[in-house]
User: Which sequence fits this backbone?
């Protein structure tokens, strides 16, 4: 018998061909296996019927850990035998099927880690040790099929030793494309900020020592540069904040190991598992009572982002130091994507850092670290990037069209919806300038090529001025594809519906800003979503944004607008005039603008939370996206709902003026933490009650919560309580980011459903 087999899935770059080789030989079969240009694998086996059956069984049951099989098609042919043995053939360029992809980057495996520590091993102390089960993938691949000449490892011809392993079927580096050793592979270099090499024997450990001494070092990783410094000393962190113009935004850190993490943060069982998994994302962990690292890492917050070493280089950095952790933040100039090239790093970071730890392997696809938060036992993904992308999200209902989603403006990702899979790109960033837009464009091209997708229509945001909207038209119009705008909050709820395979939903969509169908700023919405579209059923009270966009940057302006006419507000604003860039003069201008009926209005939940944060004195200045609301959450977690305010629904709008006025009146009478908790509870209960009322009227069983505010654990919990108390189920995200990182996915679902 002869069987011709095609396998699609994540089958390249995961040790699949060596695996096939082994099970074919084990079952006494002849034939061949080869990679194809569409990321799939082609297999021919010849032998006895029963042996082929056993082979196919092994293929599914014993596949390598990183491998994912989506489809196996088998064609049997009798009396055709032309192979004597089983071989791995040179890859074919055939591009026919679509929907396979290569795996995400995988953190260093235990076996490689053991070899790194073994003085008798050829790769002892070698920072770039990898095997078929670990190492860079998505960030190193230039084209398909996945073979060394089409990765950035092509610059490093294998030495005899590595080649021997690469061609030995019994070796675990058999056909491992990133195989390398100190003789033939990438090397590291430690240089000062003028690019001059430092003379030392052990560059990586020397860099670790420099960090411990208080220097700032830029490190080249697998998907881009990090900037690192001590977590014990505050001085380098403060210096980093000054040079990076990053006043308050929290920095992620990389800790030595799990035990060390437990010494300063609370780690649940789920968090521990994910921290040590092959994905190794940054996880937001609550600071423990014994927290002893610098407060400068995440000022004013109850939590901090922690990850564990995920390459040999990271592991070695800790060897000669006592530091429990290092700050490890993406090296990107303001509003630009993460830096990937040595020259660019030297040019752009020379004034920020003291030293550079460089290596000479090129990065083709930049990829930031992923960021995750665990709510209870469920994960809430903030940034879905390294370790996740480009692995697809599986959908229960296959769609007929291939749709590209380009995202909104902040936290952008792109998404390719292809039958029953959604390929969500890595984190791109805020697409406000040319560099990030170029990165988005490149990623779309790369992902389209990897998956062999034939895009039929392009989905974008409803905002006509977004760069992503322009890009969608550019990509669509020139090739005659349909460009479909999708309202921002509709996209949020559609993503929830797509993730849970639900056809209709009453959605609560809360965030900072989304362009509404009426041209106003939306962001606290109750929507009824169904396959063909959506209806806006309710929202938070519309509040004036004094000075338009300036009210987004300055929460005091938002508070001024909401509190206009309230006794004592003018004095309060003047007493905080130092938080207005132009001081008292600006306060006077703001006061004059109050009461005018023109100007933009927002039903945004984020803006109301901002205003309350300012009223309570938690945060007067927004130095990063979401800061006032994020800091208020930290305060609220320490408080209780002492006011127990009953939500005031007026028609289809939830009164928020009353809420902010109460906060203003009571601000010196109760603790800030208790007031923050009471305010969040009011908003959560109000939104949930509105959703329940509409669900009952329309007889819809599903209620969902999406948007950036869904990262707020307290608000999510309160909404859930109210929804479930009334006999409904609350859907939240688990695999797709609730924030704008999930918009591209929602856009494609909304268009696919219509
Ligand atoms: Zn390995
Ligand atoms: Zn070698």
Assistant:
């Amino acid at each position: 018998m002869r069987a011709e087999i095609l396998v699609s899935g994540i089958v390249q770059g995961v040790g699949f061909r060596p695996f096939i080789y082994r099970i074919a030989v084990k079952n006494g079969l002849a034939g061949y296996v080869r990679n194809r240009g569409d990321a799939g694998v082609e297999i021919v086996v010849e032998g006895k019927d029963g042996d082929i059956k056993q082979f196919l069984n092994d293929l599914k049951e014993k596949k390598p850990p990183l491998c994912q099989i989506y489809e196996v098609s088998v064609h049997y042919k009798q009396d055709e035998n032309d192979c004597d043995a089983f071989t791995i053939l040179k890859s074919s360029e055939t591009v026919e099927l679509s929907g396979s992809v290569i795996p995400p980057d995988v953190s260093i495996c235990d076996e490689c880690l053991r070899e790194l520590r073994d003085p008798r091993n050829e790769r002892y102390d070698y920072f770039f040790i990898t095997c078929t089960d670990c190492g860079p993938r998505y960030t190193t691949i230039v084209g398909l099929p996945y073979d060394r000449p089409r990765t950035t490892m092509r610059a490093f011809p294998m030495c005899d030793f590595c080649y021997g392993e690469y061609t030995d079927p019994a070796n675990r580096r058999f056909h491992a494309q990133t195989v390398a050793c100190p003789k033939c592979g990438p090397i590291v270099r430690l240089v000062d900020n003028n690019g001059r090499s430092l003379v030392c024997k052990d560059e990586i450990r020397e860099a670790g020592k420099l960090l411990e001494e208080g220097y700032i070092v830029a490190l080249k990783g697998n998907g881009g540069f990090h900037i690192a410094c001590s977590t014990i000393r505050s001085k380098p962190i403060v210096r980093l904040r000054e040079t990076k113009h990053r006043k308050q935004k929290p920095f992620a850190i990389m800790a030595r190991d799990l035990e060390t993490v437990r010494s300063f943060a609370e780690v649940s069982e789920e968090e521990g598992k994910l921290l040590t998994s092959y994905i190794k994302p940054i996880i937001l962990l609550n600071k423990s009572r014994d927290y002893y690292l610098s407060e400068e890492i995440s000022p004013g917050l109850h939590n901090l982002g922690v990850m564990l070493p995920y390459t040999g280089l990271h592991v070695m950095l800790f060897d000669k130091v006592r530091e429990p952790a290092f700050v490890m933040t993406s090296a990107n100039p303001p509003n630009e994507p993460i830096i990937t090239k040595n020259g660019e790093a030297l040019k752009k970071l020379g004034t920020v850092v003291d030293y550079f730890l460089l290596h000479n392997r090129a990065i083709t696809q930049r990829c930031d670290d992923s960021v995750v938060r665990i709510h209870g036992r469920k994960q809430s993904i903030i940034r879905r990037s390294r370790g996740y992308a480009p692995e697809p999200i599986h959908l229960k209902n296959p769609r007929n069209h291939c749709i590209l989603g380009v995202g909104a403006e902040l936290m952008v990702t792109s998404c390719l919806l292809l039958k029953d899979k959604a390929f969500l790109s890595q984190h791109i960033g805020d697409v406000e300038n040319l560099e990030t837009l170029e990165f988005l464009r490149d990623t779309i091209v790369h992902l389209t090529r990897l998956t062999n997708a034939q895009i039929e229509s392009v989905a974008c945001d409803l905002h006509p001025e977004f760069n992503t909207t322009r890009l969608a038209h550019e990509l669509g119009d020139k090739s005659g594809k349909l460009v479909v705008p999708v309202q921002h909050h509709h996209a949020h709820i559609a993503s929830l519906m797509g993730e849970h395979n639900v056809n209709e939903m009453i959605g609560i969509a809360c965030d900072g800003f989304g362009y509404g169908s009426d041209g106003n700023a939306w962001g606290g919405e109750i929507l009824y979503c169904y396959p063909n579209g959506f209806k806006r059923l309710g929202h938070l009270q519309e509040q004036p944004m004094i000075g338009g966009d300036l009210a987004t940057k300055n929460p005091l302006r938002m508070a001024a607008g909401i509190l206009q006419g309230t006794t004592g507000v003018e004095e309060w604003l003047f007493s905080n005039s130092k938080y207005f860039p132009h001081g008292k003069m600006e306060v006077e201008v703001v006061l004059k603008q109050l009461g005018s009926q023109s100007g933009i209005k927002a039903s945004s939940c984020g803006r109301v939370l901002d205003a309350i944060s300012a009223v309570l004195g938690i945060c007067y200045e927004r130095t990063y996206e979401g800061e006032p609301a994020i800091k208020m959450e930290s305060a609220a977690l320490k408080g209780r709902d002492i006011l127990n305010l009953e939500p005031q629904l007026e028609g289809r709008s939830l009164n928020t003026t009353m809420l902010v006025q109460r906060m203003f009146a009571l601000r010196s009478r109760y603790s800030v933490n208790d007031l923050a908790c009471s305010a969040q509870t009011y908003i959560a209960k109000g939104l949930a009650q509105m959703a329940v009322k509409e669900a009952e009227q329309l007889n819809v069983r599903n209620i969902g919560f999406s948007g950036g505010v869904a990262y707020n654990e307290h608000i999510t919990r309160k909404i859930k309580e109210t929804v479930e108390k009334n006999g409904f189920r609350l859907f939240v995200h688990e695999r797709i980011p609730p924030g704008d990182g999930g918009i591209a996915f929602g856009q494609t679902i909304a268009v696919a459903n219509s």
User: Anything to note?
Assistant: DSSP finds 23 helices and 30 strands in the chain. The two ends are 47 Å apart (CA to CA). The pocket of zinc ion (ligand 2) is lined by residues 158-159, 161-162, 180-181, 183-185 (CB under 6 Å). The chain has a mean pLDDT of 95.
